[in-house]
Specification:
Elements lengths: L1 H4 L2 E4 L6 E2 L2 E2 L3 H11 L2 E6 L6 H10 L9 E3 H11 L7 E4 L2 H9 L12 E4 L7 H12 L3 E4 L5 E3 L5 E3 L1 H12 L4 E2 L5 H10 L6 E5 L2 H10 L3 E5 L18 E3 L2 H6 L6
Parallel strand pairs: 1-4, 1-12, 4-5, 6-7, 7-8, 8-11, 12-13, 13-14
Antiparallel strand pairs: 2-3, 9-10
């Protein structure tokens, strides 16, 4: 079984560990069991809205065993990648909430001087409105580089609903500006390379997620095993038609850890 063979697990959050503020049934117990087995778990999310500390507080509030260094967001990947390219401390227009702003500020970017932005960084922001779209569009048309923390079209909210995600926000800015963004989050190299670096020394790695085109495609690009759970954006009848087929499909994370996989 996949989970008996690994010593590293890339675990998505929204739609895998929880939906909204509620843990997916059995996920906490499954993660506790893996932790007790000695599996190194990295909680990786494309959702850039919240800060790392907020994610840590949420996980611990749900009684998920987690430390700060086990959490990696697309905002972290974006900020660290841009800083490594020598772009800090340039002025940035950030759309995406506290998670994006905190990480950009942490690596030295200028978020408040009022100078014309050299970068426009877009993430998921439920408060996004026409004024934010206008400001981003004008900045890109004036020469700023368009960067996206992720391009997820939807977001698995509580109660089974799928809300518009960062990709929907990004699409409006790309359409209005005529530019195409460089995307930093899963499945793209900036975040996948950072995940790989954090698992330095791991013998066998698997990824579990609810979104085949990001969580699982990124893992496949690194040669890792992939497990799709059906507690997020993909329903069971949709599995047969997936372009990015996983190595295994399970009803939820707990079933996956028990080795209870479904036919594809």
């Amino acid at each position: 079984m996949i989970f008996d063979e690994i010593d590293g697990l890339v675990c998505d959050l929204d739609g895998v560990v929880y939906r909204g503020d509620e843990a997916v049934a059995g996920s906490v117990e499954a993660l506790t069991e893996l932790t007790e087995r000695g599996v190194r778990i990295l909680y990786c999310t494309n959702n850039s809205r919240s800060t790392v500390d907020a994610y840590l507080e949420k996980l611990r509030g749900l009684r998920v065993p987690a430390e700060r260094e086990q959490i990696l967001t697309s905002a972290v990947a974006t900020a660290e990648t841009l800083a490594e390219r020598g772009l800090a401390p340039g002025p940035v227009l950030a759309i995406g909430g506290e998670g994006v702003e905190e990480e950009l500020a942490r690596v030295g970017f200028d978020l408040g001087s009022g100078d014309p932005p050299e970068l426009v960084v877009v993430g998921w922001d439920p408060s996004f409105d026409y004024d934010a779209m206008r400001r981003a569009t004008l900045a890109v048309r004036a020469g700023a580089t368009l960067i996206a923390t992720n391009a997820d079209a939807s977001f698995p909210a509580a109660g089974g609903a799928l809300w518009p995600g960062a990709g929907a926000i990004l699409a409006s800015i790309e359409t209005a500006s005529g530019a195409s963004a460089e995307v930093m989050g899963k499945p793209h190299p900036p975040m996948m390379d950072l995940i790989e670096h954090r698992f330095d020394g791991a013998r066998a790695i698997a990824a579990v997620g609810d979104r085949p085109e990001t969580d699982l495609a990124g893992a496949r690009s690194k040669g890792w095993r992939t497990v799709l759970v059906l507690t997020g954006v993909v329903a069971a009848p949709e599995v047969a038609g997936l372009e990015h087929r996983p190595d295994a499909v399970a009803r939820d994370l707990a079933a996956a850890v028990r080795g209870e996989f479904q036919d594809q």
